[in-house]
Amino acid sequence: MAVRKRKVSPKKQEAVFEEEFLDRDIGEILDENMSRYSEEVILRRAFPDIRDGQKPVHRRIMYVMYTKKAMSKAPYQKVTGLTGDVMSRLHPHGDSSIEDALTGLSKPWTQRVPLVSIEGNNGSIDSVNDRPAAGRYIEARGTKEAELLFEGIKYNNVVPFSLNYKEDEKEPDVLPARWPVLFTNGAFSIGVGIASNIPPHNTAELLQAAIYLNKHEGATLKKLMQYVPAPDFPTGGLIVKDNRIEEMYATGNGKIVVRGEVKVEKNKLVITSIPYGLTKDVLLMSIAQAAEKAKIEDQFDSIDDYSTGDLETEIHINLRRGVDAKMIEQFLYSKTKLQITFNANNYAIVDNRPQLVTLRDYIDNFVRFRRECIRNTAQAKIDKDAPRLHLVEGFIRMTDFPDEIIQEIKKSEGKADAIYKLQDVFKFSEAQANAIATMQLYKISRQDVKQLKDEEKALKDEIAANQEIVDSDEVLIKKTDEELKDTLKDFKGDKRRTSIVDEDELEEVEIVETQLKKAVPTTIAITPTSAQRMTKAMFDNGKDKAVDKIVSVHEASTTDAVIMFTKNGLAMQRIAEDLNHVSIRSAVDSLVKSVTSFTAKDEIIAATVFPSEWAITESKELDKKIVLSVTKLGQVKKNPLSDVLLSFKQKGYMSRAKSYNGLKLQKQGDEVIFVAVVDEDKLEDLTMSLKRKSGGRVSKVSFAEISSQGATGSGINALKINKPNDYVVISTTNIDKVAENYYLKES
């Protein structure tokens, strides 16, 4: 680090700078400066104080409005003027940031209890871009709840004050807030290496918890949660109650599942509230994107917003006739921002440092702060009343000899002499003598003794009562209890807006996306290495000029599932809509590129189509479909179709294959020579005869008598092959009578 010395003319008396080099590690310097910077940001700009719930900018805004008498019963004042006062007096930062902070305190969709009332355009919950009008066009004043932030601030030493940045005015370090502002309105803060995200709560619930904790120091979290069961968002909605809420209150951070509320009507969904922190345009955009991604846009007829206010949401989602509204509701909850996770991280400034705050921590800090303010107020009142009592006592004594006092004052050579004689002759204190000497002479003899004695009694009673509060913890607790209950009356009418529903009570409907989509007829063509879909006309026009050999053709719909069997015993699956929509005359990418276990030495030999919802909902219909297979070396197997499927709920099925014969071709040169999917009730009618190519006895196979095996099983050995280059051939079978789609290798 260098300090430069600049020599100037001896005629000018200027500061002299000397160049000096310090040999220090740059890491140490950076660490020190970064520490100071992060402390400045966290403590003096970004984070709220646990006691009054205010960040420095908000506290300064509210204090300026209080000193300018811009409160609930006063006329509105221009936001530009208030912003200028805040900037010039207390907060030397940009006017736009102050203006944003001021208007932010008035938004009922972000503030559970707004501290500022705005006259004019204050933006709305409709759009993230719907911002308040410029400060010169709108006016503001504090709300009646904001006035409760300044209870007792007029007395000295109720809360600490510090000099402002210009050192020409004092500002409060904290406001003596009578209600729990921090947890009521919540806070979002970003510091250096730390962030805070506190959810809003119901003020009445917090005050009830504070009343209980004030009298029960050992109150448990479980007991406090009887009063504060969960956050209460200004936009309403639903909170899914699970053990994560208690975890959040016990540790200070956690996740809360928040849902918008939806009413299901015939061919219509009505959204009556949206999750906290969202604007309507963001929610509607997420619905549109999710519908487009799932390819179900055609299930929606229209979306209309009939909302009448920022907190009165009514969005109608009109559905096409025949669409399952309940399933669309579940789709919206699982795929859109109609359900979000609120990540709570309850950091606040506690004892001049950032601290993660639990529910009990917060209630305890609030109660202790209120006790401190009440005690300080009591002491301030004593300090104010004691001098007055002293004067009143002097005035009462004065009434015993008013004439003598008047004579002494008349004989005095000025005020100072009169004060001296009053102290010397009548033994008044300096304060009493000064007050009497200042009094007009005719008033000295006309003092109402009864009125003075009534005032003396009232002052003594007031001082005694306040002294009890200062001296006795028991009396302080009682006084705090009375104040909290009195404050609760101001918030009794504010009912909980966010409903709480137990996780177990949620009506879950399994989402089958293919059922949400419109089924479009399609033709599926299977080749040895791929599958593609097209219209029937496209297939008919191009089948004679097909690029690859056609294994099988299936008439299906875009929502059907396709399962393809390979000669090496693998089963690959797709939703028809997943397949490339191209002409049979166009080449498509081989599945070898996308399915890891499907190799170039393997090939697709058969396929079948069935409704995809059977697989997605794990329908019993799948168990009624049986996969039959025979291999070149005599292994015969049957198993349910459900055993050879991967889950359609996860996109992993697109890159994986599952074994349907399990041969893994254990024997060199083995392969599948027959595969079919047959209805279980038709197995009795299926016959098959196997023989060796080299000749010998014929083995008759009854699939009805073969035990079913899992996907990895290799079946039974129906015909043993002992000679090299020998193999099994199927001599007779009536498979064509019981199955439409099958593969039978020609002998």
Structure description:
This protein is an alpha+beta fold and 747 residues long. Among the domains are: 1-38, no CATH class; 47-177, Topoisomerase II, domain 5 (Alpha-Beta Complex); 372-491, Topoisomerase, domain 3; 519-744, 6 Propeller (Neuraminidase). 34% of the residues lie in helices and 21% in strands. A 5-stranded antiparallel β-sheet has the order 31-26-25-28-33, with no helix packed on it. α7 (203-215) runs antiparallel to α8 and α12 crosses α15 (430-438). It is elongated and about 155 Å long. The mean pLDDT is 88.
CATH topology term of the domain at 519-744: Neuraminidase
Rg, rounded, reads: 42 Å
Count the beta strands.
33
Instruction: Kindly report the average pLDDT value.
Output: 88
Q: Which runs of at least 5 residues are low in confidence (pLDDT < 50)?
A: none
Measure the end-to-end span. Answer: 91 Å
Residue share in helix: 25-40%
Biggest sheet architecture: 5 strands, antiparallel
Structural class, please? alpha+beta
Spell out the CATH superfamily of the domain at 519-744. DNA gyrase/topoisomerase IV, subunit A, C-terminal
Number of helices: 21
- The backbone outline, from C-alpha atoms, is elongated
CATH class of the domain at 519-744: Mainly Beta
CATH architecture of the domain at 519-744: 6 Propeller
Strand content: 15-25%
Give the neighbour order of strands across the main sheet: 31-26-25-28-33
How would you summarize the topology of this molecule?
Blueprint: H1 26-46, H2 56-67, E1 77-78, H3 79-89, H4 95-104, E2 116-119, E3 139-142, H5 144-147, E4 161-163, E5 170-172, H6 181-185, E6 187-190, E7 195-198, H7 203-215, H8 221-227, E8 238-241, H9 243-251, E9 253-259, E10 261-265, E11 268-273, H10 280-294, E12 300-305, E13 315-319, H11 325-335, E14 339-345, E15 347-350, E16 353-356, H12 359-398, H13 402-411, H14 415-426, H15 430-438, H16 441-444, H17 449-471, H18 473-491, E17 499-502, H19 513-516, E18 521-526, E19 531-534, H20 536-542, E20 552-557, E21 560-566, E22 570-575, E23 580-581, E24 604-611, H21 612-616, E25 625-631, E26 635-640, E27 658-659, E28 672-679, E29 688-692, E30 698-701, E31 716-717, E32 728-733, E33 742-744
Parallel strand pairs: 8-17, 19-23
Antiparallel strand pairs: 1-3, 2-3, 4-5, 6-7, 8-9, 9-14, 10-11, 11-13, 12-13, 15-16, 18-19, 18-20, 21-22, 21-24, 22-27, 25-26, 25-28, 26-31, 28-33, 29-30, 29-32
